[in-house]
Amino acid sequence: AQKITQTQPGMFVQEKEAVTLDCTYDTSDQSYGLFWYKQPSSGEMIFLIYQGSYDEQNATEGRYSLNFQKARKSANLVISASQLGDSAMYFCAMSHFGGFKTIFGAGTRLFVKA
Amino acid sequence: NAGVTQTPKFQVLKTGQSMTLQCAQDMNHNSMYWYRQDPGMGLRLIYYSASEGTTDKGEVPNGYNVSRLNKREFSLRLESAAPSQTSVYFCASSGALQGQGETQYFGPGTRLLVL
């Protein structure tokens, strides 16, 4: 069965430091995509970054990078140089190529301290 | 460019009442989705529409119906609301590039309270 696990309900990080949010996934399929979304306190879901299962390089988008370890089935989000505006809930998600059912983890709440 | 829009933003219903949540996207995406978000549970897929004219059940479809009105619009209907349907509802759309997963873009959400 497909499953996304985010083991950190809450994380604290000092402003300007880097932080890693963990995500592990379970699938028997070979073709899939992994996503991270940010949900600030205002409630909207914001797409951050995407990694395809066949991508050989880790995805990067500005201060966000995805540490993809396929053999370990992990897709951790790394935020460099944290900012106060990074305080939010972060969701890891997965869908299969050609499929439409995206599954989400329970989320990690990140608190950035000044 | 509005992206994905949802109406209403907030709604209070009494048990047994019906209502329709509206969603529209202007990104020319083929696929649209309805999710519900409950505390501590992430997002769960209610229904999706892979393309205009098709709809399919997701993980938690009971108590809901959907209509893909055209390529832009996808509505969610609660025929007889129950307190268990108190939640935040998100609409999303996606248009996959070949060989990639379906990156979804979300509307602002509708907060629904059923008394």
Summarize the structure.
By secondary structure, chain A is mostly beta strands.
Notes on the structure:
The complex is a heterodimer of chains A (114) and B (115). The mean pLDDT of chain A is 93. In chain A, β5 and β6 (46-52) form a beta hairpin. With 114 residues, chain A is mainly β. Chain A has strands at residues 3-5, 10-14, 19-21, 24-26, 32-39, 46-52, 60-61, 64-69, 74-79, 88-96, 103-104, 108-113. Helix content of chain A is 0%, strand content 53%. Chain B is mostly beta strands and 115 residues long. Helices cover 0% and strands 50% of the residues of chain B. Chain B contains no helices and eleven strands. In chain B, the strands form two sheets. In chain B, strands 2, 4, 5, 6, 9, 10 and 11 form a seven-stranded mixed sheet that branches. A four-stranded antiparallel sheet of chain B has the order 1-3-8-7, with no helix packed on it. In chain B, β5 and β6 form a beta hairpin. The radius of gyration of chain B is 14 Å and the shape is globular. Chain B starts with a strand and ends with a strand. Chain A binds chain B through residues 4, 32-35, 37, 43-47, 50, 52, 54, 91, 93-97, 99-107, and chain B through 31, 33, 40-45, 48, 50, 56, 58-59, 88, 90, 92, 94, 96, 99-109.
Structural class of chain B: mainly beta
- The helical percent of chain A reads under 10%
Radius of gyration of chain B: 14 Å
**Helical region count of chain B?**
0
Which regions of chain B have little confidence, pLDDT < 50, spanning 5+ residues? Answer: none
Most extensive contact = A-B, 29 and 29 residues
Specify the overall morphology of chain A. globular
> Rg of chain A to the nearest angstrom?
14 Å
Strand content of chain B: over 45%
* Count of discrete alpha- or pi-helical segments spanning 4 or more residues of chain A: 0
Order of helices and strands of chain B: EEEEEEEEEEE
The average pLDDT score of chain B comes to 91
The end-to-end span of chain B amounts to 36 Å
The helix fraction of chain B, in percent, is: under 10%
Q: Can you count the beta strands of chain A? A: 12
Shape of chain B: globular
Largest sheet of chain B: 7 strands, mixed
User: What profile does the largest beta sheet of chain A have?
Assistant: 6 strands, mixed
Quaternary class? heterodimer
